[in-house]
Amino acid sequence: MAADYYQLLDIPHDANLSQIRRAFRSLARGMHSDRDAGADARVTRLKEAHDTLAHTTSRADYDRGLGAQSQPPTPARLFDAALSLMDSFQTYRPSAEALEDLLAQNFTGRMPKSRRVQAVHVEIALSPEQSAAGGVVPFDFPVAHVCARCAGTGTTGFFHCDACAGHGIDWELRRLDVQLPRHVADGASVNVPLRHLGVTNVYLTVHVRVASMPAAFE
Ligand SMILES: [Zn+2]
User: Fold this and answer.
1) Which of 42, 66, 71, 168 is the most exposed place for a label (fewest CB within 10 A)?
2) Is 0.85 surpassed by the pTM of this model?
3) CA of 143 to the centre of ligand 1 (A)
4) Is the peptide bond before 94 cis (omega within 30 degrees of 0)?
C-alpha cells in the first residue's frame, strides 16, 4: 500500500494546520536540495498531500477514504530471509567465542555474580527505500538449553554425550523481530532486549547503515 498523506508528511493523524504546513515546508526544502530526477515528482506529491490536508473539507473527505480502507498497518519485513547472529555478520563485538560463553551462562546456571549487561553490536545495511519505509528485520538469535541426555555433564557413562557433542548444552535459534522505525537514519542504533529469550547478560544493539546513493543511480 502506498504511503498515505499523513505518512508522507510524517505527521500524526490529529496534526493541526501549522504542523501540516511546517512538515510540508521542511520536507519540500530537503527534497529541492536532492538533485535527482525523482525530486520534482516527490515534491508534487507532497504538495498534493499538503493541499488536501490543509483544507477542512478535503481533509474530511480524505480521512473518510482512509477509514474505508481500514487495513491494520502490519510492518513490512525488510528482508525475506532472517539474519543470523552467527552467520550474517562479519563483525560484531564481542568475538564469537566470547559471545557463546556469555550466552551459555544464561542457560547453565553458571552466571557470575558480578556480571554486567553487555551489548552485542551488529550492523544492518539498508537501501534508502528500506530506511524510508522502516519495518521488521527478522533475526535468528541463538539460545541454549542444558542437554537432556547428559544433564549438562557432557558425558554418558565413560563416553562423550552424542546429543550435545560433549558440550553439555544444545543450541537452537529463536526468531526475533527487530522493529526499525520509518525514516531510520544512517548511523541510528536500536537496542533490543533479549530477556524474553532468557538472556539477561546481553542485549543486541543494531546499527543501521543506509546506502548513500539513491537506488536510481545504481
Ligand atoms: Zn549431552
Assistant:
1) 71
2) no
3) 16
4) yes
